[in-house]
Specification:
Layout (H helix, E strand, L loop, with lengths): L14 H11 L9 E4 L3 H12 L6 E4 L2 H9 L7 H4 L2 E6 L3 E2 L5 E2 L6 H9 L1 E9 L12 E5 L4 H10 L3 E4 L10 E6 L6 H9 L4 E4 L1 E2 L6 E5 L4 E4 L2
Parallel strand pairs: 1-2, 1-3, 3-6, 6-12
Antiparallel strand pairs: 4-5, 5-11, 7-9, 7-10, 8-9, 12-13
This protein binds ribulose-5-phosphate (5RP).
Length: 231
């Protein structure tokens, strides 16, 4: 297939190639022998593949989803229970949107609650994205909210009061047995405040704003390399 021509006639990479670049760059932030946290999604799948191929030997990984657990085990990496590891040295995960201040929207893969737990338990969060994910203001990507099934309609009404348009993600049950509401048309000018406000609604398990605990490092795969952003 012919590559699209990008800036100054260079062959533009696909967003998947950019994801792979960011994922490979994250290996430099994985200390030998550590227990690391591993997120979920296509960018993380590249990271797991690169980690398995690399010479880095980790003591094990805490996984944020059943899908990542399978890939880690297939690659010969032991998957550990967060209850037995204590805090983790580093967490590597993707995002659906990221600002230059390193606030994120996550949960496109429905793994947001476990991702939030592993991020919270990690000393360093290295986020890996392709260029299309970097935005000035969060919210074009619908904000995922994981809800207890019996509270679905109640939570949806509260999200409407906050100015959003929640849509039930059809046919999706999270690894925790819950439903996902994707909230459209939110103007997220203060991500940390909105994250707290949504967390107060009874029936919400977690929301996809990672602002109170955002990333510590953002690796952005681009056509020309990898940009590194710090808060
Ligand atoms: C899963 C996530 C993912 O990190 C996010 O959806 C990005 O996915 P991808 O790397 O496939 O673009 O939050 O819940």
């Amino acid at each position: 297939m012919r590559k699209q021509l990008g800036y100054k006639g260079f062959a533009a990479m696909s967003s998947d190639d950019q994801k792979r670049r960011a994922a490979e760059a994250a290996l430099a932030h994985v200390p030998e022998g550590c227990v690391l946290g591993v997120g979920t999604g296509s960018t993380v799948n590249h990271f797991i593949a690169a980690l398995v191929k690399s010479r880095i030997r980790v003591a094990g990984a805490v996984s944020s989803s059943d899908a990542s657990t399978r890939l880690l085990r297939d690659g010969g990496i032991e998957v550990l229970d967060l209850n037995s590891t204590g805090d983790l040295e580093v967490y590597v995960d993707g995002a659906d949107e990221a600002t230059r201040h390193l606030a994120l929207i996550k949960g496109g893969g429905a793994a947001l609650t476990r991702e939030k737990i592993v991020a919270a338990a990690s000393r360093r969060f290295v986020c890996i994205v392709d260029r299309s994910k970097v935005v000035d203001v969060l919210g074009r990507f619908p904000l995922p909210v994981e809800v207890i099934p019996m509270a679905r309609s109640y939570v949806a009404r509260q999200l409407v009061r906050l100015g959003g348009q929640p849509v039930l993600r059809a046919g999706v049950t999270t690894d925790n047995g819950n439903a996902i509401l994707d909230v459209h048309n939110l103007a997220i000018t203060d991500p940390a405040a909105l994250e707290s406000e949504i967390n107060q609604v009874a029936g919400v398990v977690a929301n996809g704003l990672f602002a109170r605990r955002g990333a510590d490092l953002l690796l952005v795969g681009t056509d020309s390399g990898v940009d590194t952003l710090k808060p």
